[in-house]
């Protein structure tokens, strides 16, 4: 039986293995299914074509549910996972402070320099989702007109 690659361990090696790369090339909806009625949706796309979409559901100003999709390399995948881990369970204001590229990079133990852009697109997606949710908190009527 073949051993499944641990794609979360890419920060420990210089380059993801072939197995990790193959696993990360497919679109992944990790953790949960796409949220049916998200309070915030954010997308980040890099110049290389890697993309992350993060959806959040908020209850009483706390991020309760998070879903994400990744289309990209293993570094993009682990950056999305780290961004989600940093914002889940936090208030919108705390999450806004936590979702920064340097925090994501620190959570991963430091990505190689040429892959730092992965943390930037993860932060962009998370911050955009948080901003959308903040608009819904401030002006709840705007939720009726959203099209995701």
Give a quick summary of the entry.
This protein has 148 residues and is an alpha+beta fold. The chain has helices spanning 18-25, 74-87, 92-98, 101-107, 117-138, and strands spanning 28-30, 40-45, 51-59, 62-71. The protein has one domain (17-138): Alpha-Beta Complex (Sufe protein. Chain: A), CATH 3.90.1010.
Write up what this structure looks like.
The protein is of the alpha+beta class and 148 residues long. The protein has a single domain (17-138), classed as Sufe protein. Chain: A (Alpha-Beta Complex). It is 39% helix and 19% strand. It has five helices and four strands. Strand 3 (51-59) and strand 4 (62-71) form a beta hairpin. Helix 2 (74-87) runs parallel beside helix 5 (117-138) and helix 4 (101-107) packs across helix 5 (117-138).
Break the fold down into its secondary structure elements and pairings.
Elements: H1 18-25, E1 28-30, E2 40-45, E3 51-59, E4 62-71, H2 74-87, H3 92-98, H4 101-107, H5 117-138
Antiparallel strand pairs: 1-4, 2-3, 3-4
Helix pairs in contact: 2-4, 2-5, 4-5
N-C termini distance: 41 Å
Q: Which fold does the CATH topology refer to? A: Sufe protein. Chain: A
* CATH class category label: Alpha Beta
pLDDT averaged over residues: 81
Radius of gyration: 15 Å
Main sheet overview: 4 strands, antiparallel
Strand order of the largest sheet: 1-4-3-2
CATH architectural group: Alpha-Beta Complex
Q: What global shape is seen? A: globular
- Count of DSSP strands: 4
* SSE arrangement, N to C: HEEEEHHHH
- Supply the helix-strand structural class: alpha+beta
**Segments where pLDDT lies below 50 for 5+ residues?**
1-13, 23-32
Count of helical segments?
5
Oligomeric organization of the protein chains: single chain
* Beta-strand share of residues: 15-25%
Helix content: 25-40%
- Total number of distinct structural domains: 1
